[in-house]
Amino acid sequence: MFLRIFILFFFILPFQKTLGQDVLWASEVLSYSSEKSDLYNSPKFRSVQILGTPSIYPQMTETPCAWEPNGSQYGEDYVKVGFINAIYIRQIAIIENLNPGAISRIFGYDEEGTEYLLYQNTGQKTTVKSRFWRVFFEPMKKPLNAVKIVVNHRIAKGRKQYDAIAISDSQDFIEFNINVAKDIPQDLQKENLGPTVNSPYGEVAPIITPDGNTLYFTRLNHPDNIRDEDDKDAEIKQDIWFSKRNIAGVWMPPENLGPPVNDANLNAAATASASGSGLFVLNLYKPGGKQEIGLSRTSFSNGKWSYPEEVKITDFQAKKTEKDKAANTEYAISHDENILVMALNRLPSFGNNDLYVSFKESDGSYSRPKNMGSILNTADNEGSPFLSADNKTLYFNSKGHPGYGDSDIFMTKRLDETWTNWSEPVNLGPKINSERWDAFFTIPASGEFAYLSSDNNSLGGEDIFRINLFESIKPDAVAILDGKIMEKDVNTVLDIPLGIKSNSDSLNEKGFNIEINPDTKEYKLILPVGFKYYFDIDATGYLSLEDSLDLTREGDYREITKNFYLSPIREGSKMVLENLIFAQGKYEIEASSHDELEKLIKILKEYPKMRILLEGHTDNQGDFTLNVKLAKNRVDEVKTYLIKKGKISSSRIETKSWGPIKPISSNSTPETRKKNRRVEFTILKM
Questions:
Q1: Is CATH 2.115.10.20 the classification given to domain 191-473?
Q2: Distance separating alpha carbons of residues 679 and 666, to the nearest angstrom
């Protein structure tokens, strides 16, 4: 063995960044003497926790995200770790986050396995409760790729934890920084929603609807919460409340959601549907007012909320952690309700509460929860998930990632369709996260603001705060599309399904979730921008309707109202053959138009006495006479198709060419001129 000169730093020192410094964090556990374990044999406190970058630094406290030796309090323990490369070590850093000072020796190993004594404790003592400890020495003659630390329990009594080990080829301090969000505005502040919404009793778990106009939350121990009528001395528990934002953008006084959703139990909202008329709530509602762990859904219709019905999740489990009296579960739902993200404690697990994902099955149930992986989950708690409207950006809080307080809020982006491959979680920074508990981040589809719970600078318990979202933590832009399907001319609202597809095979494969308000029959859905969408409405007694919405050039959030007007099948009804396509200046029908004409053939066959008029129109570009002739050739071509392909009698089809005479839009731009180039048909006789 070879003893090297060393210098000890017993306290956390200022960080100094040095360009070119080669810092390696331990990547492999080669051997160990002992490790603490729990009943479920989870990774908590195990030797693997010493791998990688620090888990919770700069927080230096007891954590399951660190190696905790479980040997005799009077003997020795050790852990030997490897690094991805061999380097000429000049510095070792060890994060001792509980009861430091017990390391008696440090050994290094070269690629041949030769052992070198790098450090030996000669009686040094420390009085700090934790430390980022750096050991310096002269350069080694050989590069090393493994290190072993030996813990002597006689030096420092009690439990000990070690979060991370790093080596460097430089004497510039090894440092570690939180992966914090970029470009945080200097003037960013959390805005307390004030006494109109918040109370001295505690408001947690805010849920903002995608349109940003309704805020659901859980209110703790409030005197207006529903209580047990049979036990006047019973503790007032928690209820779901909501606040509406008025036309001036001001939040109105909250209202209790009331029964049957709220009762004398622990009531809490979990997540909301895209329209806000569907609410997912914690627990299963059982006869006699009892509740069991799980998830339920309630809907608002005819001025009241329905009795919550169970959301079935295959092989649902939720264990309580060692520190909890009961199992704790939290949920997020995608806007199309096809993806359910949940925070709970079940097997397999990385430790305490982990994030899991379930997928909606054909029968409406959700698949067996799948752990979302080690990029997100740690040996400590992950919770309060929120999946943004883009179905890619996930916000959650964690005690097991480096942060500023007891529990911080993080953001990550989904990288593929496995739902286990995510970008490295980004801490939202000290303007949002405090030294205390922060959680429940929720964002409307606009991505303009975020709402969250915090007990920092609150009116009493936890309060609801709002912040302006800055660019680096915003989700991808989407559009909210709403409207009604109505009968043309009379504007009667129709209860008819809306068909939708896009120019993206991936989006079509996933499908589109269209929510219908049961009272107004208004539809609402969320669409990613950057794509084109095609609508198809086919209903008995009405002429089928096709339309489109082009969002390919959109990059920002949009709110779009689009009503569809159906023409009843009766004399005088008129419609445009929207998907009848001709090449520029040509009259030959393109193959992509055949589906549109087949629908017209179907109507003519369903009504054998029907006679129609086909009218051709053009824009005002070019020679007037040529445009009239072009329009005539096009309607004649349509008539020929109906006769030959559909076997429709020519006596049932009249034609008329108007050329540019009857525009329905301005001819000032290419887009508006496109609307004028059309073929219409009118029912002349039934």
A1: yes
A2: 17
